[in-house]
């Protein structure tokens, strides 16, 4: 007698204590969103517990460590966030003694960033990936999958009527506020 094959979705549902079949495909997609966001939240909690800083702060520290002298605008671009969000991250890291700002060059208004020894110690303690688990997972997907995901999520965003300004806010900030 052959064993019936079980879909990944049914196995996941059973493990979560849910019925093996959902009456509507939207429930399966909802479960997948929950899995994604809970994986992200779990990673942020681990970062905070081991490193003592939030996920976004850790990512900013890693970018500055890898690109000493980077400015605020370039940091914002590297993290794909709004410049004011980057400024807030920097202010917090400076206040914690993890990052230093220096005004150098001909334009004394431009700030250059560098990681302080305490920031290096935080990076050594922290679990990776420094960018977070979701950006790393997305970076591992092939181009066709990313294009399809982008198109499909675009449809969902349209139905939600989501505020596009939210795209510049880091997930770790949203999750830490809760």
Draw up the topology in text.
Layout lengths: L7 H8 L9 H27 L3 H12 L5 H8 L3 H13 L3 E5 L7 E5 L1 H9 L7 H8 L2 H18 L10 H6 L2
Antiparallel strand pairs: 1-2
Helix pairs in contact: 3-5, 3-6, 4-5
Word description of this protein:
This protein is mainly alpha-helical and 178 residues long. It has one domain (50-176): Arc Repressor Mutant, subunit A. It has helices spanning 8-15, 25-51, 55-66, 72-79, 83-95, 117-125, 133-140, 143-160, 171-176; strands at residues 99-103, 111-115. A two-stranded antiparallel ribbon has the order 1-2. Strand 1 and strand 2 (111-115) form a beta hairpin. Helix 3 (55-66) crosses helix 5, helix 3 packs across helix 6 (117-125) and helix 4 (72-79) packs across helix 5. The model is unreliable at 1-5 (pLDDT under 50).
Please name the defining characteristics of this protein.
single chain, 178 residues, mainly alpha, 9 helices, 61% helix, disordered N terminus
Helix content: 55-70%
Low-confidence stretches: 1-5
- Give the integer mean of the pLDDT values: 85
What's the CATH topology label? Arc Repressor Mutant, subunit A
CATH superfamily: Winged helix-like DNA-binding domain superfamily/Winged helix DNA-binding domain
- Counting DSSP E segments of at least 2 residues, the number of strands comes to 2
Biggest sheet strand order reads: 1-2
SS class:
mainly alpha
CATH architectural label: Orthogonal Bundle
Oligomer state of the chains in this structure:
single chain
As for the number of domains, it is 1
User: What is the ordering of alpha helices and beta strands?
Assistant: HHHHHEEHHHH
Q: Count every helix, treating DSSP H or I runs of 4 or more residues as helices.
A: 9
Give the amount of beta strand, in percent.
Answer: 5-15%
- Indicate the CATH class: Mainly Alpha
Q: Radius of gyration from the CA trace?
A: 20 Å
């Amino acid at each position: 007698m052959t064993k019936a094959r079980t879909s990944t979705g049914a196995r996941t549902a059973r493990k979560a204590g849910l019925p093996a079949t959902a009456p509507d495909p939207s429930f399966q997609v909802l479960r997948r969103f929950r899995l994604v966001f809970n994986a992200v939240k779990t990673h942020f909690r681990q970062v905070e517990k081991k490193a003592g800083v939030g996920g976004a702060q850790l990512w900013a520290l890693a970018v500055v460590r890898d690109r000493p002298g980077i400015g605020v605008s370039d940091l914002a671009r590297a993290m794909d966030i709004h410049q004011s969000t980057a400024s807030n991250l920097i202010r917090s890291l400076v206040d914690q003694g993890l990052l230093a700002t220096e005004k150098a060059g001909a334009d004394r208004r431009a700030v250059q960033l560098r990681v302080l020894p305490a920031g290096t110690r935080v990076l050594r303690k922290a679990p990776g990936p420094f960018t977070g688990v979701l950006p790393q997972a997305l970076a591992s997907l092939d181009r066709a999958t990313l294009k399809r995901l982008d198109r499909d999520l675009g449809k969902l965003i349209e139905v939600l009527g989501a505020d596009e300004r939210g795209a510049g806010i880091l997930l770790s900030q949203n999750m830490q506020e809760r």
